């Protein structure tokens, strides 16, 4: 016979059972189903574990990326501050040069008039 054979009362309602006789029922299908069910449960368990680990790695990557972005932000804020300071110094230098240029032009104009008055 295939599979396991058990004597179970009432397994087949159409079969009549006499005093001490119990009908024979083939439970190989039930055994296969329970084996498949156990295998499916194990596959589901392994998949859950795998998914949890994958999610954990994903969260770690996200955390590292976020830390890198924060670090980059701080670096860019500092770099921007340095550039703003440098621009401010350049603008001050420009204003000083414009003012000095204005004074030199006025002085040049005065000297030109003086030369013209002397007659050279």
UniProtKB/TrEMBL annotation:
One of its GO terms (cellular component) is nucleus. Keywords: Coiled coil, DNA-binding, Nucleus, Transcription, Transcription regulation. PROSITE patterns: BZIP, BZIP_BASIC. It is found in: Nucleus. Residues 12-28 have a biased composition (Low complexity). Transmembrane segments: none annotated. The keyword Protease does not apply. Residues 41-104 form the BZIP domain. Its main location: nucleus. InterPro entries: AtbZIP8/43, bZIP, bZIP_sf. It holds the Pfam family bZIP_1. The keyword DNA-binding applies. Residues 84-114 form a coiled coil. Signal peptide: none annotated. Residues 1-62 are annotated as: Disordered. GO terms for molecular function: DNA binding; DNA-binding transcription factor activity; protein dimerization activity. Residues 33-43 have a biased composition (Basic and acidic residues). This is BZIP domain-containing protein. It comes from Brassica carinata.
């Amino acid at each position: 016979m295939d599979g396991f054979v058990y004597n179970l009362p009432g397994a087949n309602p159409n079969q009549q059972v006499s005093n001490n006789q119990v009908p024979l029922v083939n439970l190989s299908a039930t055994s296969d189903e329970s084996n498949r069910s156990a295998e499916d449960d194990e596959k589901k368990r392994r998949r859950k574990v795998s998914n949890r680990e994958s999610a954990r790695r994903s969260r770690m990557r996200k955390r590292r990326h976020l830390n890198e972005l924060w670090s980059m932000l701080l670096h860019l804020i500092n770099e921007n501050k340095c550039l703003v300071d440098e621009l401010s110094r350049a603008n001050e230098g420009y204003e000083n040069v414009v003012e000095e240029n204005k004074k030199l032009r006025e002085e040049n104009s005065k000297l030109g008039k003086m030369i013209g008055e002397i007659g050279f």
